Fold this sequence. Notes:
Blueprint: E1 6-12, H1 17-26, E2 32-37, H2 44-50, E3 54-57, H3 66-80, E4 86-91, E5 94-96, H4 100-110, E6 114-123, H5 130-139, E7 152-155, H6 156-162, H7 173-183, E8 187-198, H8 205-226, H9 232-251, H10 259-279, H11 286-298, H12 300-316
Parallel strand pairs: 1-2, 1-4, 2-3, 6-8
Antiparallel strand pairs: 4-7, 5-8, 6-7
Amino acid sequence: MRKPVIGMVVIGRNEGQQLRQCLESAKPHVQKVVYVDSGSTDGSVEMAESLGVTVVRLDMAIPFTAARARNEGFDRLSQLLPDMEMVHFLDGDVEMVDTWMDSAIQVMLDHPKAAVLSGLRMERYPEKAAYIRLCDIEWNKPDGYPACEGDAIMRVEAFRKVGGFNKALIAGEEPELCLRYWQAGYECLRNREPMTWHDVGLLHFSQWWKREMRTGYSYAEGAAMYGRLHYLRQSMGIWFWGAAVPLGGIVLAWPTYGVSFILWQLAYCLLFYRAYRGARPRAKNAKRALEYAFFNILSKFPMLTGMTQYWLRRITGKRPQLIEYRKTSAPASVP
């Protein structure tokens, strides 16, 4: 198998030992690794440099987004590897599975129109909290799912052609990039080959709530940008289940002699069953699928909050603020 020239971009902030594992797992598989640091205070920069990794220190006076970090890492990598054919992006809280890269390269070589390939991201500690188990199911998407997460290998030619990540997005920058790939005539591939071990670190309800808010925000922004092409169906579903159904049950309670409350409960039972049925093939057991279905219903409310936040900021012209679910010391505003 011909091995193309490949570089790696890793982004992170205060990832500690996770970052070391990430960099050490990546280095043997690529010609060059660039680590983009967004204001770490835990010695991440020094540790990365000690491993021989090129470090890009983001100017934190400029509003931060993960998309901006990846773009700046790619620009630096392009200077170091001018003949680079593929680039692999990783988040600093993951560890690459040793067998992934050879498999990914072969798939990309077999599919010359593929712009991106992602595999299976797996949570390392699902036993710690329900919120981590939810993520483990979330990552386990079917083959051919038309979007990726922060871990993916991309064809450099395609990445440059569509202009890279949209640095203005505070979330959902990966699916938005994949949409532009499709519009440009490329393929976006996904398989279930083990790719990375991830440590999402969601241990508290408040963290999960903020993460779901961020998802809702990205849905609203995507729908506003592309209409029915991107997240409009998801956005309408959130408005329906998070607002219309409960409000309808309350408003119609008097004229329907309470029947609306029964219909309300039946509607959520139907949603619960649909979520359970969809999660069961991806969950390790029925208990986890039931857990996922319960939080799927509950998630409609923080998502609705995030969507409302997007529209209020857009109407008032206020600058977007990152919705962080893990501790950070960096500025949290975007252009």
